[in-house]
Structures are given as structure tokens and as C-alpha cells.
Amino acid sequence: MKNLIDIKRLKKEEITAIINRAAEFKAASQDPARGEINYTSGISDFARLGERLYRANSCSNKTACLMFFENSTRTKCSFAIAAQKLGMNIIDFNVQTSSLSKGETLKDTLDNLYYMGVNTVILRHSEDDMTERMSKEVKFPMAFINAGDGKSAHPTQALLDYMTMLEKLGTVEGKKIVIAGDVSHSRVAKSNLALLSKMGANVHFFAPEYFTPKNKEEFNVIWEDDYNTAITDADVVMLLRIQTERLSGAETEKAKHYSEKYCLTTERLEKYAPNAILMHPGPVNRDIEVSSELLDSPKGKTILEQARNGVYVRMAVLENAAG
Ligand code: NCD
After folding, report:
1. 42 CA distance to ligand 1 centroid (A)?
2. Domain-located, residue 226
3. Cis peptide before 283 (omega within 30 of 0)
4. pLDDT band at 33, cuts 50/70/90?
5. Who wins on pLDDT, 190 or 38?
6. Same domain, yes or no, for 116 and 159?
């Protein structure tokens, strides 16, 4: 049983192995006849690859439980689709109607789920480090996958973002990757920084003062203090959602003016970073972080490709955990 708690604990080779496996899953899922990207050299290779991937998989009798204490579309659905593609059984645990509402602890709930046959837990929680805590408290051999906890970590998001960058750029080594927006409340920024710096990218952060973490000096990143300078000649511009559900009253007031200064428009991107790839973990606040015009243009499609790659990365992660 292999947990995935934080990207920081993965070695470079482990990250590469997950991405390569995800690419195999993607290749096997696509149909060259429909003109989709084909990683293999021909139809017969494609068929053989598909056979190897699906017949020999070791997850088919395993049960995964989706435990989402925060709302989610992409992460939750892609984990569910990934588990289905691997032939796993999936439980969509409903936090509101579960016995947690009767006062049962999460640890006791997990113990009971283990006895019922759950062997993989996919956990999203609003508290930092909850996945790690549960993985320690539960003494049974269940695999824990962090699907985003608190403001600290979102490892599978970083992996799917990395896969998307590799598809577009070939490598991230020496590339200028700018992550901009609500950095202080973002687990996506932190996991991406950990992964991308490990892989040799030059990561830059931009945040207005009210979204800059108090401990900014502790981040091993290049801090920018002007948005336009930050994105200039970037290879990737990754925007972050304003985490409205995590803001204080004062931050909410200031954030009302965010779009006036920092909304990324087609014009702005063309002026400062015409070759940049536009990314966003989603959900996007239209016309706040990015203009509708830009989002609906061909540049905006990468954001959908990120969501799609989430399925394949999560297949690879689930196979590691449960297989
Ligand atoms: C992110 C998350 O939940 O941390 N979304 C996601 O997983 N696709 C980012 C966000 O909600 O802003």
C-alpha cells in the first residue's frame, strides 16, 4: 500500500514514473482513428498497449472510497473515472449524511470502512495535513491519497499540471513558470512549486500584497512584485482561483478589486507573453482571474486538457496505491 501525501516526498524518478504511466494510460484510451494524439507508432502497437494496460491490471477487485469534505468537480470526478477505468469499486462517501454527523470520529469511520473492504481512501479536507494524520491514526493497511488538504498540499494537481506542461514544452527544465493570484491560500501553488523546482524549472510567484503569505521568505521561489513584469516572456502562466471560502473579511473586501488590476486578458497576454501556455487548476472565476474572451479562445483549451490529464495521472496514482 502506497500513500500519496505530499509531492515533496516523491523522488524525481517516482514523479517521472507516474507521468510515464499516465501517458501510457492516455495512449491506450485514445483512438487514433478519431485523430486524437497517438503516442504509439501504429494501430497494432496501440492494440497491444491497450491489452497490456487493461488485462494485466491489479486493481480490479479493490475498493476506493471518495471522501470529500470540500466541494469538487474535477478532482472528484476524475478520481472516480480513473478508478472505474481500472475496474475498481468506488464508494462516493457522503459526508453530510454519514454517521460523522452523529459524532463518529473520522478515524473510527475509516476503521469501519476498512473492515467493509475499502483499501484506498481518496481524501479532500479543509484542514492542513489531514491525510497524513489519518494515515497515521488508522493502523490497517489502507492507502491514503491526498486529494487536496487545507492550504498545504494537492499532489495530484501538481502531477497533472506537470504532465500537461511536458506535453506542450517537452521539458520544464530552465522554463519560466509564473504562478499568479491568491498564493497565500493556495495548495496548488505550493505543490506545483515543490514539483517544478525539483524538475529544474524557474518558478516565479506573483501575488498582490493581500494574497502574499506572511512567511514568503520561506518559499524557495522568485517573488515578483509587478504582474506584467512577472508574466513577461513566461513559458507558462498559471493563474490561481481566489479562494473565497478561505478569505478573512478584510481580504474579501480587498479581493473585490482584484480583477481591475490583475485579470488576464487576451491583449495583456499577447503583449507580455505571446508564447505562454495558459493554465488554471479550475474552477475559473470568469473575468476575475482571466477574461472570458481569453478563456474561450484556443489558449483557454489547455485548462480543459489539464482536467483531462487528471484522469490518467490519477489512474497511475491509484494503481500505485491499490495495485
Ligand atoms: C483546486 C483545489 O481545490 O485546490 N482545484 C482543483 O482541485 N481543481 C483549486 C481551487 O479550488 O481553486
Report:
1. 37
2. yes
3. yes
4. low
5. 190
6. no
CA distance 176 to 235: 5
Query: What pLDDT shows up at residue 55?
Result: 46
**Residue type (1 letter), 79:** F
Note whether 194 and 149 are same-domain residues. no
Quote the DSSP letter at residue 286: B
Q: Which atom of ligand 1 has the smallest separation from the CA of 157?
A: 7
Residues 271 and 170 in one domain: yes
d(CA 187, CA 91): 25
Query: Across all residues in the chain, what is the average pLDDT?
Result: 93
The pTM of the full predicted model, rounded to 2 decimals, is 0.93
Pocket test residue of 151, 186, 188, 279 for ligand 1, highest count of atoms within 8 A of CB: 188
Query: Is there a contact between 145 and 3 (Cβ–Cβ < 8 Å)?
Result: yes
Cell 498564493 identifies what position? 183
For 30-54, letters b (16+ CB in 10 Å) and e give: beeeeeeeeebeeeeebeebbeebe
Residue ranges making up the domain that contains 274: 155-306
What's 18's domain CATH number? 3.40.50.1370
> What domain count does the chain have?
2
Contact by Cβ (8 Å): 89, 64:
yes
Residues at CB less than 6 angstroms from ligand 1: 74-75, 148, 154, 157, 187-188, 241, 243, 281-282
278 and 315: one domain?
no
In a domain, 216, yes or no: yes
